[in-house]
Amino acid sequence: MSTDFQKVREELGRRLGALRTESPHGPLTGTALSAALGWSQSKVSKLENGRQTPTAEDLRAWADATGHSGVYEELHGRLKGFESHIRSWRRQLSSGHRPVQETWNAVTADARVLHVWDSFAVNGLLQTPDYARHVFECYATLQKSPRDTEDAVRARMDRQRWLYQPGRRLNLLLWEGALRAQVCPPEVLAGQLDRLMGVVGMDTVRLGIVPFNTALLLPPANAFWIVGEQLVITEDWHAELWLDDSPTVALYLRVWESLSESAVFGAEAQRVIARARQAIPA
């Protein structure tokens, strides 16, 4: 969990603690508040100490129980402020993968330029339906989320229309490991690499491959998207991070440029893809 996220959650916890001790009916102990709410004492403690993220319902109940019903909107605004940047997979995938894909479609729809680094799988804008299907199945199993695989695949394929709109530009860097990761059957991976071979040279795509044997200015760390140079989206196992402050976006652009210095493009990129395809087990 990010330091910035934890700091904001702790600040919200301190605000909750102040509301409890400054109740207009007299200070409430944690025990008294937990009894009034029907919660465990540990939940009250975790919320006040920033060790648990409250829900909107938790915040309303807290405001009412401490006699500060009028501050609910302020508390809810704080919650939305940091949840808009830390988007947990548990919550996002509660209704399956399709809504997540539709959110991505909306975010990228108006962007004219994307800078993307992918270090673990082929990027969704260039995935074949079969490859995407296996990726969604992997994550549905991990997150124990509803399996709406076919709807999610259709939504991801719909996003690929972006590539065929005039004035768009996908600047994509792929770590060679993404070409070789066997997250699908061999025949599906072969078809996916054939698809990549075909996009080299597209007017709207600049595809670079960072080979295993090249010198690196930076380690090939987590994948990320830079959307229109205003928003960075990156992810971890537990959540997506949406980062929109200018210094952070500028940092990720520098990371992308550094990685691009180690990449190969054009015919040389096709040769790296071809070697990966030849290495697929029969």
From TrEMBL:
Any single Pfam family the record assigns to this protein: HTH_31
Record domain HTH cro/C1-type: where: 31-75
One GO MF term attached to the UniProt entry: DNA binding
Recorded coiled-coil stretches: none
Position of the signal peptide: none
Keywords: DNA-binding
Record protein name field: DNA-binding protein
Source lineage: Bacteria, Bacillati, Actinomycetota, Actinomycetes, Kitasatosporales
